[in-house]
Amino acid sequence: MIAAVPDAPLRVHVIGAGLIGASIGLALRRRGHDVSLADRDRAAQMLAIALGAGEPQAADAAPADLVVVAVPPVAVPDVAQRALAVEPRSTVMDIASIKAAPLSDLASRGADLTRMVGSHPVAGRERSGPGAARADLFVGRPWVLCPTTMTSSAALALARRVVVDCGAAPVEMSAEEHDQAVALVSHLPQIAASLTARRLLDAPESFLRLAGTGLRDTTRVAASDPALWVQILQGNAPALRALVQPLIDDLISLQSMLDDAALARTTAADAMTALLSDGRRGRARLPGKHGSPHATYATVPVVIADRPGELARLLVAAGDAGVNVEDISIEHSPGQPVGLVELAVAPTAVDRLATALRAGGWDVHAEESRLAD
After folding, report:
1. H or E segment at 331?
2. CB-based contacts of 307, cutoff 8 Å, min separation 6
3. What angle, rounded to 10 degrees, do the helices at 19-30 and 153-165 form?
4. Burial classification of residue 39, based on how many CB atoms lie within 10 Å of its CB (0-12 exposed, 13-18 middle, 19 or more buried)
5. Residues 147, 119: Cα–Cα separation, whole Å
């Protein structure tokens, strides 16, 4: 049974004023909680405070109800142990993206795990630092809570309330389950994105000018902080290695299929089709909006002028037609003052949207519409 938590505003102290720590501060202050911030990087702390994520912790401040440890994974055990000792009545919650290793380290030190809640908000951006913080960063996103067998019901309830007040959806699992899950849905994609983007270093500029949304989407997370990711990959190495080897095996198989001699064989084409089809089926297992089953949408391509306000006008026109735009992608034509916008909508809404947009003078190419996974 989850213990009840009073509805009164909480006193929350956030250690670490980076993207996640500052975003937590912004989200909790929006809900009326009293937030203080600390960071060994004075500039980061002052910027987060200036942006409204919290206030400096006063020397005579009352003990915090919750201490949020928002530091890099390698620093979590030291900072959390110190917080548990300095604030003997406070619940301590860390937000590192690996859970088993820090919690095991704390247990080996004899830390009071009754007040410790491991957690991980599954949200972020390619940019880091308090300047990238947003109060709505966690809205609708999963936030994993990893209590140990020693975690008290009161500590877990307090952590759950903070998660909900940040707008996130709490998900409870063991630290080991969490690490296996994020190795698959976060850490492996980071490796794939970074290694793919590495191929761009020596590419001719003329090649790069042809890049479209496929390459940009695939490599988006490659812009993340390498130093932080080294800590994450090292900390979750066992779970990640179990996934890297099968990926290597698939690449080696594909390499053999691409051999000049193999390309002429029907068996190679069949094997390649099977490999790519498995990927398509795997992607189809990803949940859709609000956790609903994966949905297939149709795209309506629209050519628009590359000038301020055009995209906003297009989306307003779609809304006036009574059509909900599920997703959107934009590609700019190299050297041309136009762009191609693809609106993903329900297949049954294609004709209605195309008709309404054409009536409004938009350059619609609905006859080229295709299903978008």
Report:
1. strand 327-332
2. 337
3. 80
4. buried
5. 8
- Express the helix, strand and coil content of the chain in percent, nearest 5 each: 50, 15, 35
Q: Kindly give, in sequence order, each residue whose CB lies less than 8 Å from that of residue 129, ignoring residues fewer than 6 positions away.
A: 18, 19, 44, 47
Collapse the DSSP code of 21 into the 3-class scheme (helix H, G, I; strand E, B; otherwise coil) and give the result: helix
Query: Which parts of the chain register pLDDT below 50?
Result: 1-2, 368-371
Q: Is 123 helix (H, G, I), strand (E, B) or coil?
A: coil
Tokens representing residue 146 in the block: 């990893």
Confirm if 10 and 34 have CB atoms less than 8 A apart.
yes
Q: Report the alpha-carbon angle 288-291-293, nearest 5.
A: 50
Separation CA 66–CA 91 (nearest Å): 5
Structure tokens at 157: 């309830």
Average pLDDT over the chain reads 89
Selection from 152, 168, 169 nearest residue 2 by Cα: 152
Nearest to 65 by CA among 105, 117, 123: 117
pLDDT digits (tens, 9 = 90+) for 76-94: 999 999 999 998 899 999 9
Cα(first)–Cα(last) distance of the chain, in Å? 40
171, 99 contact by CB (below 8 A): no
